[in-house]
Design brief:
By secondary structure, this protein is of the alpha+beta class. It has helices spanning 3-24, 27-76, 82-91, 115-128, 152-163, 178-198, 212-217, 221-232, 243-254, 259-266, 270-284, 291-307, and strands spanning 98-105, 133-137, 140-146, 169-172, 176-177, 205-207. The chain has 12 helices and 6 strands. It is elongated and about 115 Å long.
């Protein structure tokens, strides 16, 4: 029962009792009883409201605990059982539906029930309905949406920066069906963020499906290392070492083969960049003007970025550093 209706019933009973006193006792006795009666009524109403508040808070905490348990189980990929079905049914989550995970990371831990989570949750649920959820996990903001929304990463980026500007990286998993699909999409979104850091990508929104080629590269580290050393190793013979030439290749590929943009990024003249590209051709026998050679060079440059990150390397490996 709502508190308003409960208090209305109680106060109505109090008024009926007071009217009974007025009708059945003389004025002097009724006057003596009036003040204690209404004081007791006031105290009782306050106690009733306080008790109702406590009960409401307990109910909210219980609902939040159920919701948190469901979220943890879904993100962990817990096998579907009666317990998971009961939790999902209680909060109205469609286990059989398609869901997509979006993960947001910044250099500060995202606080549970903090302003960022509250704002994003309110806005996302208003736009996409209550078929998903927004939570925190391992210092990340995790958004799970029902179905497959258009540009969900850009939407989440816009919402988080509205509350806390700057420094955000958004990872977007692919849509998957069923409870196992929630965990899979979450792992993909988190992997996209990790891979973006390993590759030093500057884009704030990174989708897992865009990084599938890099995932393929990462499957065999030893083969990748051999490929990088085979293709880029000859650059070590350049005056000043391989570093400047590899930086030139990185800028050239990152700027979509635009020599002028690469020169601007490297703070060099266009002629200097062209000279370096010619030098790379001389040392490696591969030209950025040839499609196959360009593919091999870019593969080696991207692979080198992967191998250069500490969390990608096998701690037990005694392989020498790449060029």
């Amino acid at each position: 029962m709502e508190l308003r209706r409960l208090l209305d019933l109680y106060l109505s009973a109090t008024w009926r009792l007071s009217e009974h006193f007025v009708r059945t006792v003389d004025a002097e006795v009724g006057s003596a009883w009036a003040t204690p009666l209404f004081r007791a009524s006031d105290d009782a109403a306050a106690a009733l409201g306080d008790g109702y508040d406590r009960a409401q808070r307990r109910a909210i905490r219980r609902e939040e605990a159920i919701r948190r348990e469901l979220i943890d189980d879904l993100l962990a990929g817990v096998a579907v059982g009666e317990s998971l079905r009961d939790l999902a049914s209680h909060v109205g989550f469609n286990l059989a539906g398609v869901h997509q995970a979006i993960v947001a990371r910044t250099d500060r831990a995202v606080r549970d029930a903090g302003p960022v989570q509250s704002h994003v949750e309110r806005e996302l649920l208003a736009r996409h309905g209550d078929g998903g959820f927004v939570a925190t996990k391992e210092a990340l903001l995790v958004c799970v949406l029902a179905g497959s929304a258009a540009s969900p990463g850009e939407t989440v980026l816009r919402l988080v920066t509205a509350v806390e500007p700057g420094g955000w990286t958004i990872g977007v998993g692919r849509p998957h069906r069923g409870p196992v699909g929630v965990a899979r999409s979450f792992r993909e979104a988190r992997a996209a963020i990790d891979m973006a850091r390993q590759l030093a990508l500057t884009e704030p929104v990174v989708a897992f499906h865009d990084l599938l080629p890099y995932r393929l590269l990462s499957q065999d580290r030893r083969l990748l290392r051999e490929t990088v050393e085979e293709i880029l190793g000859p650059l070590g013979a350049a005056r000043g070492g391989a570093g400047p030439l590899i930086e030139t290749l990185e800028a050239y590929f990152d700027e979509a083969l635009n020599t002028t943009a690469a020169a601007r990024r490297l703070h060099l003249s266009v002629r200097a960049v062209a000279y370096r590209l010619d030098r790379i051709n001389e040392l490696t026998g591969r030209s950025v003007g040839d499609g196959r050679d360009r593919f091999a060079l870019e593969l080696a440059v991207r692979g080198r970025r992967l191998l250069a990150t500490a969390d990608f390397l096998d701690p037990a490996s005694d392989d020498p550093p790449v060029v």
